[in-house]
Write a structure and sequence with these properties.
The chain is of the alpha+beta class. Helix content is 14%, strand content 31%.
């Protein structure tokens, strides 16, 4: 079991994603990945989009979303 497979209790946080950091709008212990729906603990959150205001569980999930939105070269 890795950090993304464990059961994360609490409530989801609401964040504003900025360049290199995020601002907590409403406190919580995790955010949901916009692609996979996985719960990502705030202490493990490393990937997000400032433009889309979305969090991602992994670089692969972020790449998938960027490709869906046409934000990467083909």
């Amino acid at each position: 079991m890795n950090q993304f497979e464990r059961d994360i209790g609490g409530r989801p946080a609401v964040l504003q994603f900025l360049d290199g950091e995020y601002r907590v709008i409403s406190p919580g212990s995790f955010v949901l990945c916009a692609v996979t729906g996985a719960k990502v603990p705030l202490e493990a959150l490393r990937y997000w989009s400032v433009d889309l205001q979305e969090a991602y569980a992994s670089p692969a999930a972020a790449l998938k979303r960027f490709q869906e939105k046409g934000l990467t070269p083909k």
